[in-house]
Every structure is written in structure tokens, then in C-alpha cells.
Amino acid sequence: MGLSSIFGGGAPSQQKEASTNARTASNPIAKELKNQISQELAVANATELVNKISENCFEKCLNSPYSSRNDACIDQCLAKYMRSWNVISKAYISRIQNASASGEI
Amino acid sequence: MSSLSTSDLASLDDASKKEIATFLEGENSKQKVQMSIHQFTNICFKKCVDSVNNPDLSSQEEQCLSNCVNRFLDTNIRIVNGLQNTR
């Protein structure tokens, strides 16, 4: 479960929730089921992220006839994309919080 | 990761079923938020980030990304309202 451990580390809120849920679970089968669901979700999120980053960074870093690779560009693009993800996530979540505080949603 | 069998699942008591239903509901809405963030990042990265010569975001890029999300949501709300009015 390499991918999910990468992504699990990137989503602390999800992980925290999962562990508190796991602790309160009375039934070991229920606990196992919840763990499996969390794992699958983490894998799905990691896959989505990898696909989106590949798409965007391929577009940004590989122009013209792709004769050579451009590893430095891809590394920088990857870092930049992850930072963008965090900025977007912050902006979106604060918008949701404001909307729910003012009773819009 | 061991896999659960159907008989394991059938043996779940009502309290556990309820617990799982609540868990799924929560995970579901969290996942919707996650997928929206993936979508917004995909759109806004294209619009806001021109050069990838630097792994850090400039303050303009950061501002652009956050404006981009907010404008997308404004657009979304306006469209929903518009559709409601034409009904």
C-alpha cells in the first residue's frame, strides 16, 4: 500500500478521523471494513493526484518533439502543483466554512 | 490487507451497520470535497501557473489560485440561481 501511505500522510484530518473511528468501533469486522474503505479512498485520491499532475506537468514541461526529457522541470512542476493543491484546498475550505457560518448552505 | 467475506459482512449486528452507514456518509462528503479540490487545482493551475522554473509559488500565483477558486464558486452559484429562475 505504497500509494495510500503517501496520500494518507498528506491528509491528516482524514487519518485522524479514521483512527478515532477505529478506536470506537465495537466490532472487529466493522473496524476492518472501515479501514478498507479508508484505504481504498486514499488510493483513489492518490491516483487522481498522480493523473492530474502527469497531465499538467507533461503539458508544461514537454513542448515540441519530445526528443529529450526535462526532469528538472517535472520535479519543479510537481512541487508547484502540490503547493497549488494546498492553496486551493485552504481557499475552498475557508469558503465552505464562511458559507455555512452565514447560513448560505 | 485481508479481504472480508460475505459471511463476515452478514454477521454484522445492527449497531455496527448503523456505525458503518454513518462512517460512509462522512467519508462520502469528505470525498466530494476532495474531488472538488482536485478539479479546482486542475483548472486553476492551468490558468495561474505559467512558469515552472521554480518549485515555489509566487505571491501573485498564490493570490490567483485563491481568486480562481472563489470565482469558480461564484460562477457555480450564479448558474444555479439562473437555472432556478428560468424554471
UniProtKB/TrEMBL annotation, chain A:
SUPFAM superfamilies membership: Tim10-like (SSF144122)
An annotated GO BP: protein transport
Gene3D superfamilies, A to Z: Mitochondrial import inner membrane translocase subunit tim13 like domains (1.10.287.810)
Bilayer-crossing regions: none
Highest taxon, organism lineage: Eukaryota
Family the entry assigns: Belongs to the small Tim family.
Subunit-structure text: Heterohexamer.
The record's note on its domains: The twin CX3C motif contains 4 conserved Cys residues that form 2 disulfide bonds in the mitochondrial intermembrane space.
Protein name: Mitochondrial import inner membrane translocase subunit
Annotated source species: Saccharomyces kudriavzevii (strain ATCC MYA-4449 / AS 2.2408 / CBS 8840 / NBRC 1802 / NCYC 2889) (Yeast)
Gene: YGR181W
TrEMBL record, chain B:
A matching Pfam family: zf-Tim10_DDP
Entry keyword annotation includes Endoplasmic reticulum: no
UniProt GO BP: protein transport
Membrane disposition: Peripheral membrane protein
Superkingdom field: Eukaryota
GO molecular function: metal ion binding
Alphabetically ordered keywords of this record: Chaperone, Disulfide bond, Membrane, Metal-binding, Mitochondrion, Mitochondrion inner membrane, Protein transport, Translocation, Transport, Zinc
Subcellular location: Mitochondrion inner membrane; Mitochondrion intermembrane space
rRNA-binding as UniProt keyword: no
Domain notes per entry: The twin CX3C motif contains 4 conserved Cys residues that form 2 disulfide bonds in the mitochondrial intermembrane space.
Entry's family note: Belongs to the small Tim family.
Quaternary context: Heterohexamer.
Function: Mitochondrial intermembrane chaperone that participates in the import and insertion of some multi-pass transmembrane proteins into the mitochondrial inner membrane. Also required for the transfer of beta-barrel precursors from the TOM complex to the sorting and assembly machinery (SAM complex) of the outer membrane. Acts as a chaperone-like protein that protects the hydrophobic precursors from aggregation and guide them through the mitochondrial intermembrane space.
UniProt name for this protein: Mitochondrial import inner membrane translocase subunit
Naturally occurring in which organism (per UniProt): Saccharomyces kudriavzevii (strain ATCC MYA-4449 / AS 2.2408 / CBS 8840 / NBRC 1802 / NCYC 2889) (Yeast)
Lineage, top ranks: Eukaryota, Fungi, Dikarya, Ascomycota, Saccharomycotina
